[in-house]
Design goal:
The protein is α/β, with parallel strands linked by helices and about 400 residues long. It is built from 16 helices and eleven strands.
């Protein structure tokens, strides 16, 4: 199982690996070394065969935090795809070689669509493969590709947007992919988009999103499965750092403010506006990843498990990453989404459509007053957010996904 990207991409794969191990399968989780602690002990459930962690040396957080990475994140949809090559290409040869070594003896590979690792490995070794999605990326007339920052383009335009995004991506990345196929894997170049080839071959797709959050489009083919979220069970000893736990106990539930691996252009200015919004709204906050000073009403926090922290919040303010949005909705509290780019505006619109939070507030429009207005409106969304959270808590997305793979 290939888990590539940030924590929000890794943790759901750890949940799947745990379930596969519990059913007697031998699992190798291939992921950045930075996240090995997430898998420690969790791919080896009691009574299961257990699993192995194969570390990738590329560090996604270091990439994002670099000067090149920050310029990439600010570049818009077309610049994002173009910049992906500039940021990733220097590391791609090493990553592909490490993935190849980890997967050479596998009977099945589960991998995200980006990079088409499953197809490359299938051609090299002959094993079966499936595609993992963290946002609904199969063409549909119901809504445009999640990378398109529009609610709808009409049914024809919606469906066409997927082809446009995929063709642009292949146009920019195809030469690099084909070069690496030859240099690292000894394979001939692909003649066309691997995404189209996967659809022609009806390769199984597991989309780890809840149908309660994104209803399954009726025009999806039957090999594309909306399984529900892939969530890890809470560990028995899950707890919060003592200073954070003390802050929570000292007053009413605060709001959480954090933008994950997204770094604003001017973090000090954004931090100042966040503090101003909290004062205007009269609320306490746990703030992660922004340069704020500790005070009676503000508690700076390091990395902490969202599934432990979010249920104790009055609301969560975040960037709208797929994983963070899933955790926020499952916590049953209102979500205030401040999208930066990519699929984040899509998740912000879904939160608002579900009544689980206000309309998204793009990070470029965040000010003390604009954020305070959304924080003051939080009570309007408590009921629907709580109802959705209760339903998501009993969803069995991990079981559904593993059942499907075993069925194949």
């Amino acid at each position: 199982m290939l888990a590539l990207g940030s924590r929000g991409d890794i943790q759901p794969c750890v949940a799947l690996a745990r379930e596969f191990g519990a059913r007697g399968h031998e699992v190798t989780l291939v992921a950045p070394e930075r996240y090995q602690h997430l898998a420690a002990g969790r791919c080896e459930p009691p009574g299961g065969v257990g699993g192995r962690f194969a570390a990738l040396t590329a560090d996604p957080v270091a990439i994002v935090e670099s000067e090149e990475g920050q310029a990439w994140l600010r570049s818009g949809p077309l610049g994002f795809v173009r910049g992906l090559r500039a940021v990733v290409e220097p590391l791609a040869s090493t990553v592909l070689a490490e993935v190849d070594a980890a997967c050479a003896n596998a009977e099945l590979v589960l991998a995200p669509a980006l990079g088409s690792f499953g197809r490359h490995l299938h051609e090299r070794y002959g094993m079966a493969y499936g595609i993992l999605q963290f946002q609904p990326s199969e063409p549909t007339g119901e809504f445009p590709n999640p990378l398109i920052p529009r609610r709808t383009l009409g049914r024809i335009g919606n469906r066409a947007s997927y082809a446009v995004v995929e063709r642009l991506g292949w146009l920019m990345l195809g030469p690099m992919v084909n070069r690496l196929r030859g240099q690292v894997l000894g394979l001939r170049p692909l003649r066309g988009s691997p995404f189209a080839a996967d659809r022609r071959d009806r390769v199984p797709v597991l989309c780890g999103v809840s149908p309660l959050v994104v209803p399954r489009p009726p025009d999806w083919p039957d090999y594309v499965h909306l399984t529900g979220y892939w969530r890890l069970p809470l560990e028995p000893d899950s707890s919060l750092p003592s200073d954070l736990a003390g802050f929570l106990d000292d007053g009413p539930p605060p709001v959480y403010v954090g933008f994950g691996s997204m770094v604003p252009d001017e973090p000090e200015a954004v931090a100042e506006q966040v503090v101003a919004a909290l004062r205007l709204a009269g609320m306490r906050a746990v703030v992660q990843g922004l340069p704020v000073a500790a005070s009676a009403d503000v508690c700076p926090a390091g990395e902490v498990a969202h599934e432990v922290l979010f249920p104790r919040m009055a609301a969560v303010v975040h960037h709208g990453g797929a994983g963070t949005t899933a955790a926020g909705l499952a916590a049953g509290v209102p979500n205030v989404v401040c999208p930066f780019f990519s699929d984040q505006p899509f998740w912000g619109r879904r939160v608002a459509a579900l009544g689980a939070g206000p309309p998204p507030l793009p990070i470029r429009a965040l000010s003390g007053r604009s954020l305070a207005a959304r924080l003051q409106a939080i009570p309007e969304y408590h009921e629907k957010a709580a109802q959705l959270g209760k339903l998501l808590k009993v969803e069995r997305g991990v079981k559904n996904a593993v059942d499907l793979i075993e069925g194949y």
